[in-house]
């Protein structure tokens, strides 16, 4: 088990990285929205920016909640279940409020920004609540893996133009659509591999974890993506409805992107869980590898010569003479 000081340092590092990711997504969303002069394009830009920002705020809320709990629990201080949830959820509320301000202040009179800010705040609050769950090492590992999945996606997006021809992209629109589909599958598989391997790497020294918990941790980043998609489709539904009314093309693109995000989240979920289970399974000893316990030696009972039966023989002889 890590020392308390090392655990606090790890939690603070995760919080810093999660906040950096969230701040980058919020800054990118704000620049993308405010850089538009057309109101319709501004609406579609908001819809495009929301899913990534929501995912980042989920992780940021969880990361900050874990860091605050680590600071409160230092020096072996006991924290009850209710207090733990209050602290972690409250941390998520604060982070969510700050993130929402970055969007709402774009235009305080527009309801679209209020809805977007509220969705972002809800994501951070839910992330903070997740930090209050038992086995906080699993939550931390899932948060690190979610950041890794984001980095994998970012690198692949940067290399997309160079690698799409590898998947068969040509001059025709049909080949480009097929290549984009294969590209999405590759992104989900690589993200799932990263999620499973990183969670296993971070949790492998915890002897108290059984293999189903490793599978759950490997699936964690995918579960966060699914949760983020649910938030986008529920709390942020009005934004996407409005963006879909701009044109038929925008409505079609929003539908395609929504399906792609969900498929990617499910692939990360299942591949991550499978990868983590296989990784931990390779460390388990098979029954053939376990040395059988030595059998107790059976000492042969000493064979003693039968006692002399002269007395019995005399009695038999006397009985024969009597006859």
What is shown here, in short?
The protein has helices spanning 4-34, 39-72, 81-104, 111-131, 136-158, 160-163, 173-203, 211-234, 237-244, 248-281, 310-322. With 323 residues, it is mostly helical. The protein is flat and about 75 Å long.
Low-confidence stretches: none
Q: What portion of the residues fall into strands of 2 or more residues? A: under 5%
**Which secondary-structure class do the elements indicate?**
mainly alpha
Distance between the termini: 92 Å
Tally of individual domains: 1
Q: What is the helix fraction of residues, given as a range? A: over 70%
Order of helices and strands: HHHHHHHHHHH
* Shape by Cα distribution: flat
Radius of gyration: 32 Å
Q: Tally the helices: what do you get?
A: 11
How many strand elements? 0
Keywords: Membrane, Transmembrane, Transmembrane helix
Biased composition (Low complexity): 299-313
Transmembrane segments: 52-73, 85-106, 112-133, 140-160, 180-200, 265-285
Region (Disordered): 286-323
Descriptive report:
- The mean pLDDT is 85.
- The radius of gyration is 32 Å and the shape is flat.
- Helix 2 runs antiparallel to helix 9.
- With 323 residues, the protein is mostly helical.
- It has one domain.
- The protein is 76% helix and 0% strand.
- The protein is built from 11 helices and no strands.
């Amino acid at each position: 088990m890590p020392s308390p000081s090392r655990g606090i340092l790890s939690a603070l590092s995760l919080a810093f990285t999660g906040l950096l990711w969230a701040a980058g997504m919020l800054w990118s969303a704000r620049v993308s929205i405010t850089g538009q002069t057309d109101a319709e394009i501004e609406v579609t830009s908001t819809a495009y920016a929301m899913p990534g920002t929501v995912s980042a705020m989920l992780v940021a809320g969880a990361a900050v909640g874990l860091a605050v709990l680590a600071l409160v629990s230092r020096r072996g201080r006991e924290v009850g279940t209710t207090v733990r949830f209050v602290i972690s959820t409250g941390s998520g509320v604060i982070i969510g409020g700050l993130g929402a301000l970055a969007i709402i202040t774009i235009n305080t009179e527009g309801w679209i920004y209020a809805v977007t800010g509220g969705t972002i705040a809800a994501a951070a609050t839910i992330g903070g609540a997740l930090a209050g769950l038992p086995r906080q090492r699993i939550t931390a590992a899932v948060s690190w893996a979610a950041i890794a999945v984001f980095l994998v996606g970012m690198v692949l997006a940067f290399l997309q133009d160079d690698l799409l021809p590898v998947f068969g992209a040509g001059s025709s629109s049909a080949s480009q659509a097929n290549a984009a589909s294969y590209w999405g599958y590759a992104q989900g598989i690589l993200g799932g591999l990263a999620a499973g391997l990183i969670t296993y790497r971070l949790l492998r020294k915890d002897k108290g974890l059984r293999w189903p918990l490793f599978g759950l941790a490997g699936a964690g980043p995918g579960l966060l993506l699914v949760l983020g998609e649910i938030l986008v489709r529920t709390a942020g539904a009005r934004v996407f409805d409005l963006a879909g009314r701009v044109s038929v093309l925008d409505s079609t693109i929003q539908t395609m992107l929504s399906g792609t995000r969900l498929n990617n989240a499910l692939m990360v979920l299942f591949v991550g869980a499978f990868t983590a289970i296989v990784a931990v399974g390779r460390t388990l000893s098979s029954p053939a590898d376990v040395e059988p316990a030595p059998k107790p030696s059976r000492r042969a009972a000493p064979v003693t010569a039968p006692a002399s039966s002269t007395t019995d023989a005399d009695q038999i002889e006397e009985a024969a003479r009597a006859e």
